[in-house]
Design a protein that fits this description.
single chain, 289 residues, TIM Barrel, 8-stranded parallel β-barrel, 45% helix
């Protein structure tokens, strides 16, 4: 099992220079750095290759995550918007392949966050989304890229909110390179049992995001990490686990994640590093023994 973290723990904007974070997370004890798809999609090829070379030098696996904006909603009933989303995602798949990364996760099947001021036609949108994900999966397969569809809470999206709905969606897509991504932050809202949700997902689990209910680093809250570790062990999960802590307000990251107060206890940059390194050790013990 590989343990990683999202770059945005330290950043206030999604589109930034990811390069310095590769060596940083390696020094802090991680195996993975997850970067934002929005920043990657528009990155020149030479800079993508530079990231790939640095990751190889540092022994770091790169993963990609994105919540598609509304203008690229691949589940849209507006065909022009859907096609724009397909084109954007294909460009991101190409960049991910060039990067040497093997998965794109997040809300790649719709858009994020959902606009609930508009009517919701879940059945119709679900059908369109499945068709779009099938097309994207077929495009990604020869590039050795897997799509991991993130299960988020009802306040952020409506197509699927728990493990059962996510597994059924992936079954209906019926592509070998489409998997479920669970996230402990969202599970805390939607699931009756962490253990049961993970076990019922089983072999469909392709990626796992972790964090506390208040978005602090794992180990500084009330998520039952030993229960989650036991469930991952029982399904023989040996994939990728990436923590997604957001502790500082400000910028596009703070606004999108709704971080309105400092959750770091006014930590210095050095203390932030110490906190997440300690969390990495905590997660390894809980998940890997």
């Amino acid at each position: 099992m590989k343990i990683g973290t999202y770059f945005a723990y330290w950043e206030k904007e999604w589109d930034t220079d990811f390069f310095p974070y590769i060596s940083k997370v390696a020094k802090l004890g991680f195996d993975i750095l997850e970067i934002a798809g929005g920043g990657l999609a528009d990155l020149p090829d030479d800079q993508v290759l530079r990231l790939k070379e640095e990751a190889s030098r540092c022994g770091i696996t790169l993963t990609v995550c994105i919540g598609l904006p509304a203008k690229y909603d691949v589940s849209s009933e507006n065909e022009e918007i859907r096609q724009a989303g397909i084109a954007y995602m294909k460009r991101l798949i190409d960049k991910t392949h060039l990067l040497g990364a093997r998965q794109i996760g997040g809300i790649v099947y719709a858009y994020w966050p959902a606009d609930y001021s508009k009517p919701v036609n879940k059945a119709a949108v679900r059908e369109i989304s499945i068709r779009s994900v099938q097309e994207l999966a077929d495009y990604a397969l020869p590039k050795d890229v897997t799509l991991t569809l993130e299960t988020v809470n009802r306040f952020e999206q409506f197509l699927f909110n728990d493990a059962a709905e996510a597994v059924q969606f992936v079954k209906d897509v019926n592509r070998e390179n489409v998997k479920v991504m669970l996230d402990s932050f969202h599970m805390n809202i939607e699931e009756d049992s962490f253990y049961d949700a993970i076990v019922s997902t089983g072999s469909y689990l392709g990626h796992f995001h972790i964090g506390e209910p208040n978005r602090k680093v794992p180990g500084k809250g009330r998520i039952p990490w030993d229960e989650i570790g036991r469930a991952l062990h029982d399904i023989h999960y040996d994939g990728t686990v990436v923590m997604e802590p957001f502790v500082r307000p400000g910028g596009g990251v703070g606004a999108d994640i709704k971080v309105w107060r400092d959750l770091s206890d006014d930590a210095s940059d050095e203390q932030l590093d110490e906190d997440i390194a300690e969390s990495c050790r905590f997660v390894r013990k809980a998940f890997c023994g």
